[in-house]
């Protein structure tokens, strides 16, 4: 029985005896204070920390300041607008298992490939491809990204290595298909994209399909974010219809998770008319495994990993199996032969656009490509006091230079914006103890190459006695024993030899 002056709150009995109520109030207040403190701490932890004080040299500070002040649209802005930048095909499907394509195409697996063809899909993010090596490995076809519509401004842009890839793949007997990365928001834009693609590829022998690729539409920053599934499908169909009218085989690309059960696209509608290219990256399955074909039932092409390894391509690459093959090579739609093109030598380098006058600290080689390897050629040497216009700076240690009306590349640490820079005299240069006038500060750390770097007998790329005796690759280690900050050289111990290399090509081994 309950007394009329008692109150019952969820099984707890509270009377008007304030001796029982006061402790409850005190506990509640304390709890409120603790929660408030935790909220403040949590907010504080999310605030960015203050920038550390700069420890850069004066010359580097000047370069970075110029980059901020003089930046103009260029490769950096282009990459930011490229909807495929940093994205592999079928990104929602993971990365897949590492595949060594030469092993996949060995004689042992040849019987499993009856009625199928093995290919790759490539963009500028694979860098400069040696297509002869790719062909020798047994690749039958290549789906080449020819262009994309930018994510924010909606501008159509070509892939900077598209023509080179089509040219060289074709020249080495590899059959060519194409794909376009779309951010179209109307059917009219999709038709514009298809017309652009058809015109761009008309001079090449396109045998394999021309595909429509659209990803990232569920990102709130995407131009397509507000579109319904039906609207996106209509836009894709408009592109594919126009590609068919232009005389090419249309194909639609998407991740398996987006295609199945009409999850993100009206797949059942698209597959009635067009070939489907599915991206799905299982960790346990390759196209040669028993029963693999059943997983690709209903699809014309299966992109099954983004981690393919193949001779001739330094980066990993998407690998595809097509459940069809073509014996004959198609004719080009245009009777006009395409101009011969070179690879985009900056494809794997991020150059920030600048516009500044520079000179050599002493002298520096100007090369045709940003590399000191055997594939590069020294075209001219820039001496101290001579000037050139620097138009780009790469975080990999290279500068793009305009000199004498030509575009060249030079090691950034050999250049300065101080046009009155005085070359240190022999008398003022400190002897490092090894007979060199270059001053090295002693250090002791373990390093590897960011990608690869030449190891030389002298800290110079212009001295004829400076011979390249080894190449340090990423993953191989050397002990750095000295650094020269002024010219950007490191002294390293490698296989019992004391050698020298450009510091910006190295990274510490963690």
Provide an overview of this structure:
The strands form six sheets. The chain has an eight-stranded mixed β-barrel with strand order 4-5-7-8-9-10-11-12. Strand 7, helix 8 and strand 8 (206-213) form a beta-alpha-beta unit. The protein is α/β, with parallel strands linked by helices and 510 residues long. It has twelve helices and 26 strands.
Q: Could you give a short account of the major beta sheet?
A: 8 strands, mixed, barrel
Question: Over all CA atoms, what is the radius of gyration?
Answer: 30 Å
Mean pLDDT: 80
Q: Quickly give the structural class.
A: alpha/beta
Strand order, biggest sheet? 4-5-7-8-9-10-11-12
State the share of residues found in helices, binned by percent.
Answer: 10-25%
Distance between the termini: 73 Å
Global morphology: elongated
Strand content: 25-35%
Number of helices: 12
Low-pLDDT stretches = 1-18, 38-77, 88-92, 426-435
Tally of DSSP β-strands: 26
Q: What's the structural blueprint in terms of helices and strands?
A:
Elements: E1 7-9, E2 12-14, H1 18-46, H2 58-70, H3 75-81, E3 99-100, H4 101-104, H5 107-110, E4 117-122, H6 131-136, E5 141-149, E6 156-158, H7 162-171, E7 175-181, H8 187-201, E8 206-213, H9 229-245, E9 250-255, H10 256-259, H11 267-270, E10 275-279, H12 292-295, E11 301-309, E12 317-322, E13 351-360, E14 363-367, E15 378-383, E16 387-394, E17 398-403, E18 406-411, E19 415-416, E20 441-449, E21 452-456, E22 468-473, E23 478-484, E24 489-494, E25 497-502, E26 506-508
Parallel strand pairs: 3-11, 4-5, 5-7, 7-8, 8-9, 9-10, 10-11
Antiparallel strand pairs: 1-2, 4-12, 5-6, 11-12, 13-16, 13-19, 14-15, 16-17, 17-18, 20-23, 20-26, 21-22, 23-24, 24-25
Helix pairs in contact: 8-9
